[in-house]
Fold each of these.
Amino acid sequence: MITGNTLKRSFLEGGGEMGALTRAYDWASTSVGPVDQWPETLKATVGIILRSNFPMFLWWGDNMIQFYNDAYRPSLGNEGKHPTALGQDAVDCWPEIWDIIYPLIMKVKTNNESVYFEDMLVPIYRNGQIEDVYWTFSYSAVIGETGNIDGVLVVCNETTETVNSRTLIEKAQKRIQQSESNLRSIILQAPVAMCILKGSDHIVEIANDRILRLWGKPKEKMIGYPVFNELTEARYEGFEALLDKVLETGETYSAYGAPVTLYNEGQPQLVYIHFVYEPFRGEDGSITGVMVVAIDVTLEITAWKKLEESENKARNLIENAPFPMGLYEGREMRLSILNQSIIDAWGKGSDLIGKTFYEVLPEMKNQGVFDILDSVFTTGVPYHARNQRVDIEVDRALRQYYFNYSYIPLRDSTGKIYGVLNTAADVTDLELARQRVERSEGNFRNLVQTAPVAMCILMGPEHVVTVASDEMIRLWGKPEEQVMNKPIFMGLPDARGQGLEEIIKKVYETGELFVANEQPVDLYRDDKVETIYQNFVYEPYRDPNGNILGVTAVTIDVTAQVLARQKIEEIVKERTESLRKTNADLSQFAYITSHDLQEPARKIATFTEMLRKSLGDRVDPRSGTYLDKIEKSSTRMLSLIRDVLAFSTISNGKQDFEPVNLNEIFASVKNDHELLIEEKQAIFDYPELPVIEAIPIQMSQLFNNLLSNSLKFIPRDKNPFIRVTWKKLNEAEVLAEGLAAGSGHVQIEFSDNGIGFSIEHAEQIFNIFQRLHGRTEYEGTGIGLAICKKIAENHHGKIEAISAKGQGATFRIILPSKQTGSPGNM
Amino acid sequence: MFEKILLIDDDEDDREFMLEVLGENFPHVVCNIAVNGQDALDQLKSYRPDVMILDLNMPLMNGRQFLRAVNKNPDLAGIPVVVVSTSSDNYTIEETKGLGAKDFYTKPDKLSGWKAMINSIFKEP
């Protein structure tokens, strides 16, 4: 039996857990009946099911008793239909899905159709709950020995996991699709420029209008093409390399305010953009492209750059300003830019930037400065101060300064005040100087007012009398209130039209000092016009910078002096005239006297001669001596008379200058002395002499007298040696001689080897009738050299003698070679 | 050689000196005397000298006036006039020469001077 059983039961062998369960199951209690009564078809089918590794299930009989194998077992879950499902009626087992499976079962049982489903959702109860379970299954008929469809074989595979994962994938795909669609939409509608560039060629997959506008290219030229096809400039500006890097590394790249050259309608245009290159990943996470987000910030950057530039400019301006300058920002007046000058002016150290004005200069509070600053910041009205006293604490002590300063509100591009620009000039020195000047000006005015001379200050172009000394008021002869603080010619109308307006105007305008002496001014005083004479000085009155403010006038009334001098001059003129007349009379007297004296003298001489002649031999020796004495006396008398006559006629003005060749004159004079020269064997040494303008006869007289002297004053045992030299004098030499230069003076020296004279007599010898020697020793009238002197002076020249006793005499004659006036005394 | 002279001089002494020298040295010479210019003009109506010797300072008509009168009279223009005067200043010399005087001499103070002067006057053509 065993063997038989063994053999008989062999279709139930194996099959794992389900095989064991199936063998152990009390089939007799079911409609299938005990195993040994089973139809062959059932046995065979169950055997296949149990031993199959493919999930299989069998409904048998009208009650659709269930069989299944191990492979099917997991589909029933842990806590559910297993193991009760074995041997159970189908309807009892699958109430939850009976609606679904019954029609299918019926299709197989009634129509012998095989039913096949893939991934069909058949939710079943397992694991303590209804689970959505997907199945791929086929229902097929098991045809019994009777030819009836006795069972339905279910070959199935639970595809829940596959389906679930596929669903997940599909959902994911949907989501991706959705998000891509969203992305496109986001990109297209983004308020910033956006595009996606795909692949290493950076092909434009999508680009919104903004980026197209930024590119300045039509959509059709960009979409689907490598982006740099058109944007050639940008490629070389490094953008391609940046994109490549993002593709390669997957790192986001962002830049702010990057300059990029784009062509807009063929014109290169520099634009500034903020942009982000974001790696764009495919579904598998690999980088497939780059998403570009860009914002055109050209306007902002340009504005910013301008601002920066202007700020730099402002900074430069401030920092390089040669005077204190600072920029304070915000209502709190935060020091943002300060130049060295303002730092020095404050003396608060150098580390001030970032602090507030109020912190750095607290001492300004009580001086009203804080309020002013705040007011400027609030109202936008600039504040300017001149020579403002500002006390700054330096080394814990308040020091007094003076500043010219301005607080100027600074506005940003929207017109909002953001700070205050402070410019200042330390005018402390100037102000102190001004105060000193003011004080000294006060002193000066005081000085003017109390000056013992007439002084006044005329201010401005109107010459307003601002200060005048009492003396000046007295000189003007007007009540003080009539002249003070009025233009001078308004208070003193009678001074008009006498040239004073022009003089004062000129001093005021040119700054040139004007000095006048004894200027006559007609003033209406005490009901009558009086001419007063003034010495006055008009001097520009200047401020410390040298600007002319007015004119100071210092006047000295010299009327009394002038009148006295005029009187004296009148008297002198009268006296001079009278003297001249006396001189002329004297000259005339000398002429007439000498002329008239000549006749008797001449006649005495001639008659004496005739007497001697007529007496003949009858003249005894004693009478002869008397006759000799008469002749000598009369001859001498004649000489005297003629010399006096000559002397008196030298400057009678009846002769004119003419060119005189001194060679001819000298030759003629020599000729006149021929006999004496021969007798004394005189020797001459002289050069060619010049031609000068002179009176010929007087030149003859001059040389005659000199030569005659030289021949006369020589010891008897000596031969005269006479030397004449001459030279031109330069102007300095002429001036040194006390003569007027400019007429080409010549100096002639006439020297001899005669007896000479003592130097103390050098001037005396030119006096008329002056004799140094006894008449018996050397003949002469004593008039000769006086005549020479008078001739020299008549020619506007001079003569002088140089000698030492026994050394010979030298006469130095200086004469102009050109005469400008008429003959006369110097 | 002059043979007829008109000596016009108011000074008797000077006329004597002149005549003394003439008589001694030029005995053939005829010398008429006029005591002033007017006198000379009167005499000249009937007497024509070879030369006139003229003093300047004279009463009635002085030497200058006489010279002017001679200049106005074409009949007398051909007779040379020599001025002999006490004066010796250039102005007078130039003045009289300007009035037509042929020569000018200062009255000498010696007989030899008179002789030399007459010689000189006569030497003139």
Amino acid sequence: MKVDVAIVGGGLMGSSTALHLARAGQKVIVVEKNSPGRHASGVNAGGLRRLNRDPAEIPLAVVAAQMWREIESLVGSDCDVQLSGQVRVAENAADLQKLSERAALVRSLGFEHEQLITRERLYQLVPALAPHCVGGLYTAGDGFARPYHALTAFRRQAQSLGVKYHTGFPVTGLERLGSCWRVVTESAKFEAPILVNCAGAWAGQICAYLDEPVPLKVGAPMMMVTERLPHFLDPVVGAASRKLSFKQMQNGTVLIGGAYLAEHDMVKETTEIDLTKLSASSQTVLALFPRMANVRIVRTWAGLEAFMPDRIPVIGSSAKHPSVYHAFGFSAHGFQLSPVVGRIMSELILNQKSSLALEPFSIQRFQSSG
Amino acid sequence: MPKTYQLVVIGAGPGGLCAAITAASLGLDVVVLDEQPSPGGQIYRGISQTPDDRSALLGADYQRGADLVAAFKASGAQYWPQTTVWSLNSRREIGILRQGRASIIQAERVIVASGAMERPVPFLGWTLPGVMNAGAAQILLKTAGVVPAQGTVIAGTGPLPLLVAWQYLRAGVKVKAVLELSPGTNLWRAAPYLPGALVAGDYISRGLKYTLDLNKGGVPIYYGVSRLQARGNDRIEAVEYGWDILGSDRRETIITDSLLVHFGVIPRTNLTKAAGCQHIWDRGQQCWRPQVDRWGNTNVPGIAVIGDNAGIGGARSAEHSGRLAALEAARSWHLISTQQRDRQAHNDLKWLRKDLRVRPFLEALYRLPDSLLVPPDDEILVCRCEEISAGQIRQAVREEHGDPNQVKFYLRCGMGPCQGRQCAPAVAQIVAAENKRPVADYTTFRVRPPIRTLTIAQLANLESSES
């Protein structure tokens, strides 16, 4: 089979890109080091959040939110999407000031989705919240989904359109052969005229092969999940001045994140939970949801994720090579963007331009200073 | 910084106690963490509180524990009862729960002696109330004198069903039948190992004694039983089974409101898996176990595993392996030389070598057929916490969720409060069978703390230094 595009990385970004390209009739292969969703794509918190995005990401997140609302038409599964809103809680006047400035900023960019809400509205939305909070910033229509299910849906839809996944092939090198790229692995080589780097925590290694280094740092955000509880919470709850992401899943379990990082080992691909930090995370939970005190924690985990110094991803074409494209470095908030990133990548590859502004995400921002 | 202890022994069964006694005698500062209120482990459970008449009932084996516990109490090792270990990592930080408070202690060296668990074998109806593990039932007998009032059926493989039936017989409980699910052909497979086994024939003579006593007591023992099923609506009402002989499809039914099952024991691997120790598939024992050298050392520096926790060997072997790990610990601090270690280890190593010769016979004799390891019917519930069936797991594998962890991600199988303890082996077996690959190519689920659940408040109040 003659291949048009080779994508390195079978996670959400790679699979979404593969799906969009396949819909446009391209012959695509995905070269995956392990199994799809082994790290960040499979184990992230699953937040569908426009709330509190970096201004550069807002236009993308807004389009992505629309795509999630219609996700079944794209991937043939509802991905367990739950659009019950996301809220950032203000616990005092300073928090409220911070949130109102944020709301003004978003409005000034022409978006209306982040709404300041009163204390009364906050407690209507989150009755279980500790009584001291004073207001919040709320985005109706945000929510969450189940990441591994979403990834599976993207992958299977891509496969049904002819995308071929080669799993268990860690990339060991990249070679230019005439007008083709050769993806070298220990046991096989794959060739295609176009190469896409969606390698997540390993994307920096791919950039190194391309002699286009990036200051990517790997981190492993930790999560914990509780036993099942009767339904008590609809929106995803964060806080203006605390590290917290708190949501009750469809099955009643409560998923708690806080962007605290685990120890990790890139060679063994393992993470080791830091219990002291999770203790801090539990304290945050108790401060905002005292009723959680005697709820049992069933499991904790962490996934390897790529972080950029400015906490926004690299999306766009290579600055060094023709026919090479990047989408990585989502800095622990890429899940929501995955449908739109796939669309953008296919536009870039097929039309050399994107319907959304990508300048802030250019890889050149790490190269110009030299 | 967490408080540091020189040697922490996790578990106070025969292995853990011997390790602690030996290590303390060699001058090591030892702390023993025990989930139970008193030392002895499962085999000698509650031995210091058991009334004399009940311990007589439980047989001479049980008495041996009393001496061991007495020696431990005189050893100078610290003993922390009712202490749950909920985390162990490769840096030997141990998360414990003691008197309702969670804390982290640092060990310079750890000996994991958390023993074995009853092998979980999912079959049709195994989750019905009234179906119970025979070992758990035995604990009720040992600690509380509790027995099934209306009699019971005991089914499974290995020596324990016979022992439990024998103990019940002596306690005056009606045993309606003992169903032996090892295939009849196991006897022929085991026969070649018999000469080696004769040197440690104690096992066999005891098995023979139980069988004779049960026959005398009128308890029927059926061999070659297959396709075990518990039937009932809200709870078990009957046991159904077939025969594995000459393709017969005859089914038998026994009316009972109690079924005790036991399919041997397997090492508890959650702690060692969480700590990053290497595990391997043991073909003889048909289970995963931590990979250790003769001193119990794992691939993680400073973490040793002994006794049944490192591979099933029974209480006596555990004592010897506990001593070996303690000698190695003393050597690592230069309290004894390598030569002294080897000299003092001589008898233990000799005993273990001798005992090893009986194992192939027993393993072959009680070998589980594939139909018990790989749940054959799609309707069989595999993950009881999340209610996932064998059929759902097969379907997930067919949809390219090709290893146990992917199955877990996809189905939530193993994500419930039991942390996958009950379903991990069966899931790995189904995945291997469905992929037509040897089960040794797979490992069970990755394990994350907490190994035992703890509450948000307990974690929030985590003390990382304790006096």
